[in-house]
């Protein structure tokens, strides 16, 4: 087996040969002979002469190989107390029937289909059904606000929407159909069809919403499937768009990240055994949401591409019923890999600081815990390692890249873990630290802008939906020849990547550029702190000053003034007086996106008295209401 160093060297010295070899793991209709096509640089395309169908690779070929009875998808719903397993044959039948139903609605190759779904099998089936007929799916988090949903409808212009009657939260049910109807009333684009998966416990009928939106036909999905002829796979070019996944844009207009088919399938197939140590017949539990990029890649596509079993979990890390939920799911289904977000681990730690609930489950088969979505602070990583006794591996990647930029190559050459680092660049990614004018920084440990040399490896975004120029302007012009990640950080003397936060999280205190991520790392190390955020607040004398906001661990009782004094002393000791860290407030919650990122920019805007808009991706807008009184200075 090759070493990481040899594998990485091959991937950057001869990327065409490296990735054409990796592509042989797939079943192509026409195998590619071209690696990367740079004829339209700075836009690049992978395997442009190859053709394939993704569901053939994820489903049909495993059935044809005699593994039709192997488990493909396990739906574990903590909110309904049900568990359902689909074999590869059963999942293929469901996907083909749903794809046939879409064709009966007039959906053709290249048409868009929007999914607005809870974490139920119909979400996964709907995504795969689109891929089967070459339709381009766009998943929006179930429960998203109607106005934000309308903006995505107008941008993607879908022919159809796949949805359900509602989503189930621990304390309430969320009716989806009124939100869909309102979004269609707001949107300028008319969606011809909405197909609805019925769930018990919801009151809005198809007739109710049909009256509100007369230009749209509403259907029961099961009825459509029963009448449909199962769809055969449609062969598409490797470069054919598989999906559009929206990420927040600075202009307020959402950015639709476009993922191709062949490059994405190749990258994911390669990543499963090499980065996560998961192969055919094994189980991966990705505790994410299909509305997030991690859900797309490592709930839906990657496990099925390699013939593994994937777990679709409908529940929370805590409260359904307790902080042992993830450990139960991993133990019951025999997961060898568990992938989640740092914010989920912090929530679990807050509720079960000693990891006592782990003892209730047999986790002997679990080999690694992986985290992505936000920086995995060293204190949380160390805690998880101590209570689980297995490697805790940080990943760094983005919606745009589709799979990890930096990760410990757990499956083939596991490296020593350095807390605070997602380890080394993944083969295919040439990661550089560049200064403000795009010149590479030579000295290890010097912080700068993290950039990736073009072309990026397969699986990364091809463009933004309908707007190549916006893609170029947003990502490729700041540092010519590089993709600008928008994150700051450094490489150490061993080549390990340290991601310190978004570049707008670097603050200027009396002329000193300081990383709020570094301060958060120190604050989070305090034994009373479950979670924290440090932001730069406008200061008339110093330009900015750091201000810290902390959530206490369950059961911890400490005076805010005492804790503040301890944290100020700690930051002064670890970073120095130059940090000028003097403000700490204890809060009940921090505002986060659905994927777990803390909304530091919004917090800063509130604190500075600036106008701000509540981001569409926020999980609980009421948290901001609580924080306004803490953040905003009194008049």
3D architecture notes:
This protein has 635 residues and is of the alpha/beta class. The protein is built from 19 helices and 31 strands. The strands form nine sheets. An eight-stranded mixed β-sheet has the order 5-4-17-16-18-19-20-21, sandwiched between helices. It has a five-stranded parallel β-sheet with strand order 7-6-8-11-12, with helices on both faces. Helix 13 (342-351) links the parallel strand 18 and strand 19 (368-371). The protein starts with a helix and ends with a helix.
Main sheet properties: 8 strands, mixed
Categorize the overall geometry: globular
Question: CA-to-CA gap between the ends?
Answer: 65 Å
Number of H- or I-type helical stretches: 19
Could you give the count of β-strands?
31
Mean pLDDT: 93
Low-confidence stretches: none
Strand order of the largest sheet: 5-4-17-16-18-19-20-21
Using brief descriptors, characterize the structure shown:
eight-stranded mixed β-sheet; 19 helices; 31 strands; five-stranded parallel β-sheet; single chain; alpha/beta; globular; 33% helix; 635 residues
Tell me briefly what this model is:
The protein is an alpha/beta fold and 635 residues long.
How are the elements arranged and paired?
Blueprint (H helix, E strand, L loop, with lengths): L3 H10 L1 H9 L12 E5 L2 E4 L4 E2 L1 H14 L3 E7 L4 E6 H17 L7 E6 L3 H13 L2 E6 L4 H11 L3 E5 L1 E3 L4 E3 L1 H10 L6 E5 L8 H7 L4 E4 H7 L8 E2 L3 E7 L7 E6 L1 H15 L6 E4 L6 H13 L3 E6 L10 H9 L1 E6 L1 H10 L16 E4 L6 H11 L3 E5 L9 E2 L23 E4 L13 E6 L9 E2 L3 H9 L5 E10 L5 E6 L3 E4 L2 E4 H9 L4 E11 L3 E10 L7 H15 L8 E4 L13 H8 L14 H10 L4
Helix pairs in contact: 1-2, 3-4, 3-11, 4-5, 4-9, 6-7, 7-8, 10-11, 13-14, 18-19
């Amino acid at each position: 087996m090759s070493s990481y160093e040899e594998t990485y060297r091959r991937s950057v010295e001869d990327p065409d040969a490296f990735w054409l070899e990796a592509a042989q793991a797939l079943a192509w209709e026409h195998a590619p002979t071209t690696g990367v096509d740079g004829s339209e640089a700075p836009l690049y395309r992978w395997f442009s002469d190859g053709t394939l169908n993704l569901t053939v690779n994820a489903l049909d070929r495993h059935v044809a190989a005699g593994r039709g009875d192997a488990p493909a998808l396990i739906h574990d719903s903590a909110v309904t107390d049900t568990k359902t397993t689909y074999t590869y044959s059963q999942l293929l039948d469901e996907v083909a029937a749903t794809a046939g139903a879409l064709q009966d609605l007039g959906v053709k190759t290249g048409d868009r289909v929007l999914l607005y779904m809870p974490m139920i099998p119909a979400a996964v089936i709907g995504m795969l059904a689109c891929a089967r007929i070459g339709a381009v799916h766009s998943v929006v988090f179930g429960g998203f606000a109607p106005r934000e949903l309308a903006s995505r409808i107008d941008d993607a212009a879908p022919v159809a929407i796949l949805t359900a009657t509602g989503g189930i939260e621990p304390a309430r049910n969320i009716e989806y159909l009124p939100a869909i109807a309102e979004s269609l009333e707001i949107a300028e684009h008319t969606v011809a069809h909405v197909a609805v998966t019925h769930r018990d416990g919801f009151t809005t009928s198809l007739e109710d919403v049909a009256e509100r939106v007369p230009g749209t036909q509403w259907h029961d999905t099961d009825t459509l499937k029963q009448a449909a002829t199962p769809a055969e796979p449609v062969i598409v070019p490797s470069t054919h768009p598989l999906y559009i996944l929206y990420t927040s844009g600075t202009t307020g207009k959402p950015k639709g990240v476009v993922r191709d088919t062949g490059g994405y399938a190749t990258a994911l197939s390669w990543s499963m055994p090499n980065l996560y140590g998961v192969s055919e017949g094994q189980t991966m539990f990705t505790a994410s949401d299909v509305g997030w990029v991690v859900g797309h890649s490592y709930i839906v596509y990657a496990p099925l591409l390699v013939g593994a079993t994937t777990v679709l979990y409908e529940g929370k890390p805590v409260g359904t019923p307790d902080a042992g939920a993830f450990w139960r799911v991993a133990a019951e289904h025999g997961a060898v890999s568990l992938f989640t977000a740092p914010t989920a681990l912090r929530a679990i730690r807050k509720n079960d600081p000693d990891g006592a609930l782990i003892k209730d489950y047999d986790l002997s088969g679990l080999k690694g815990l992986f985290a992505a979505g936000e920086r995995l602070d060293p204190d949380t990583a160390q805690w998880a390692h101590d209570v689980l006794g297995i490697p805790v591996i940080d990943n760094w990647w983005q919606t745009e890249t589709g799979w990890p930029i930096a990760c410990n190559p757990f499956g083939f050459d596991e490296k020593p873990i350095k807390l605070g680092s997602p380890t080394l660049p993944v083969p295919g990614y040439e990661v550089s630290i560049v200064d403000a004018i795009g010149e590479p920084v030579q000295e290890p440990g010097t912080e700068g802008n993290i950039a990736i040399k073009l072309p990026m490896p397969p699986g990364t975004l091809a463009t933004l939906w309908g707007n190549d120029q916006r893609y170029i302007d947003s990502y490729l012009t700041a540092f010519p020849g590089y993709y600008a990640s928008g994150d700051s950080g450094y490489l150490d003397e061993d080549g390990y990547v340290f991601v310190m936060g978004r570049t707008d999280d670097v603050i200027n205190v009396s002329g000193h550029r300081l990383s709020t991520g570094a301060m958060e790392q120190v604050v989070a190390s305090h034994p009373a702190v479950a979670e924290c955020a440090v932001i730069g607040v406008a200061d008339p004398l110093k330009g900015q000053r750091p201000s810290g906001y902390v959530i206490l661990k369950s059961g911890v009782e400490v005076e805010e003034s005492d804790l503040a004094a301890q944290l100020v002393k700690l930051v002064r000791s670890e970073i120095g007086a130059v940090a000028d860290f003097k403000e700490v407030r204890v809060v009940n919650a921090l505002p986060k996106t659905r994927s777990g990122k803390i909304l530091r920019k919004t917090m800063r805007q509130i604190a500075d008295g600036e106008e701000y808009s509540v981001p569409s991706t926020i999980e609980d807008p009421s948290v901001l209401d609580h924080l306004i009184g803490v953040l905003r200075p009194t008049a």
